[in-house]
Design brief:
about 325 residues, disordered C terminus, binds guanosine-5'-diphosphate, binds magnesium ion
Length: about 325
Amino acid sequence: MFGRKREDTAKEPEARASFFRRLGSRLNRGSAWLGLDLATLLGGRRVDSEILAELEARLLTADVGVEATEHILADLGTRVARQELADAGALSGALRTAVTEILEPCAQPLVIDPERRPFVILVVGVNGSGKTTTIGKIAQRLAQEGASVMLAAGDTFRAAAIEQLGVWAERTGSALIAQQAGADPGAVVFDAVQAARSRGIEVLLADTAGRLHSQSHLMEELKKVKRVIRRVDPTAPHEVLLVLDANQGQNALAQALQFHEAIGVTGLALTKLDGTAKGGIVVAIARKLRLPIRFVGVGEQAEDFGEFDAGAFAAALVEGAGAAGLAS
Ligand SMILES: Nc1nc2c(ncn2[C@@H]2O[C@H](COP(=O)(O)OP(=O)(O)O)[C@@H](O)[C@H]2O)c(=O)[nH]1
Ligand SMILES: [Mg+2]
């Protein structure tokens, strides 16, 4: 994230390959996105409009959404008309390409500007989406890159949330700024930005609540936290990272629109891609929101986390665990 060399640079490609293998085997629980492989769908027939109609139904069932499905089908339809898609292999390749093209503009990793110190990342999302875990995973990566990190326990709604962040702080060697449950989140985050500044901390990750008395209450509180951060540093937050649980399907998309409208999201982290059969939602999100997808989570552990790669993701989605690009 810092573009800084890690000590164990030699291990990096290895770690990356193993992450993509995990992605391939866990996304959609290891099955190809279409449930059946394309060869079964074709059953020896040529790719024709009937096959495309069946494919369309499957894309919609996989939560790809109407807009992205139409886009993919238009692309495949043109190729069928030109008789370019003779067999299952060609169809699968074309599908993978069409999906990659939709995802590609969103594959923008988070780059931390060392001039911004602390670089403030405000992490938002509904309750249970994976915010605190994602903060821990990011802190772990930053620690490995040799960065100094501070975590701010801005979710003061439950004591357990503060403790959970404390565990991650300890595990990752990050500083922690927390108050008791029920404290004003704005005050916690304000203190944290000031403390980070005076201690020369490089990255501040601020946790927030995902549930309050009402959704409008929550949005007002997040706006307030953002204003408070600005009072210390008018250029901050430098990233508003929205964490979305992929299991939520179309609901995740609705949440994203709501958060984006209220506080302006600059990046997404998509979690629990290991537990969903609806990984297609990522395509819908990419097509509709066109926001940078920074990270994907495929499990609860720190290493079950990686930067978003359009080609690898498309391969895992379309071909499942058997994706050729993921085999090495
Ligand atoms: N399987 C899986 N579980 C996850 C992932 N990310 C988070 N979780 C789990 O989801 C639950 C809620 O996460 P948490 O970070 O507390 O969510 P928060 O309420 O948004 O802070 C916890 O049990 C996490 O371990 C993921 O990528 N995969
Ligand atoms: Mg939390």
